[in-house]
């Protein structure tokens, strides 16, 4: 057996002889540097995400993922992890419009002080994930669903829609001028916030999570004017068997909430300008005289005037007392969108009963005046809803402070006049007049 001394002799390097490794140190360091560079490059590639703009074919996708470290098994796991939730969360039915609302309740809005509240996908808050929708129910929003998914691993059978999508939640009605307009204001605000540079490729409309497939004609025309082209309201005809994911989308569910008055006025300025361009309604067509345009805008049915002729004569006499005043009478239901735009462009004083036709007021110039008329009983029983057009006047820069008249005479209610049950009688009441002083 070899003793300890012999083993030490074998391991010893003579003092006058350099180790063989040191003899080739330059070549060794070269190979070490190459190895470090390779490992570093591989590490970067494995930790770099390569978002896909469209869902690629499986072969191309597999090649990309294998090259950069996302293998098909990982992609399948990401797909399997996509979880769809009901668009309408019934747990929050008692607070449907508050906070995160009952529409897409697991997500929160982006909001800067004074600006519009919105959700945008993909974004930093969504960790780069896109929005996917599933279901086409137009009767029960809890049967329609939403989810977030990475663009590299969209849900199975998903259809990918390119371009910008506007997703709107309206708690009321897209056919009503006021409720429809207030649901569109945030989209116009976001559009303006982005320098009007991005146009939507499509709209997806929801009411209580239920799909809606059209807007009222007036509202649709206004949005066509604002966004420079016909609206593409998505119906999902070709996507009945799977979810739909969007390349980019913006979701609104708080209407004008959170916006400062200045921002609201800027939005109305933009819509007014675009509507006039769309309808070729030039404010300069009014000339020097008449300098004051007074318009009596009438409605039919509920909250209409009992005697339109008498009311028109009263205001005609008042207008005649002012030099340069021109008096006009129109029925809102007989006018096209552009006829309403042109009429309001030549109006400085708008006189009308409470109703959706008053939404047209923002088409007047800033600092114009509004006179609004109410049936009996509204002051005590109608609640905050009676002030919605005063709000629009404020948002659009109009004057409404002293412009209300409430009829003290109306249909009889068998209960005391402050009983809530009387509102069902007063709500659609017609409006009389007071000719004192004429």
From TrEMBL:
List residues traversing the bilayer: 28-46
The UniProt record lists the Glycosyltransferase 61 catalytic domain at 296-371
Q: State a GO cellular component annotated for this protein.
A: Golgi membrane
In which domain of life is the source organism classified? Eukaryota
MF-aspect GO terms: pentosyltransferase activity
Q: Which Pfam families match?
A: Glyco_transf_61
Topological relation to the membrane, as annotated:
Single-pass type II membrane protein
Q: What is its main location?
A: Golgi
**In its keyword annotation, does this UniProt entry include Transferase?**
yes
Alphabetized UniProt keyword annotations: Glycoprotein, Glycosyltransferase, Membrane, Transferase, Transmembrane, Transmembrane helix
Q: Where does the record say this protein resides?
A: Golgi apparatus membrane
Keyword Transmembrane helix recorded:
yes
Q: What is this protein called?
A: Glycosyltransferase 61 catalytic domain-containing protein
What is the organism field in this record? Crotalaria pallida (Smooth rattlebox)
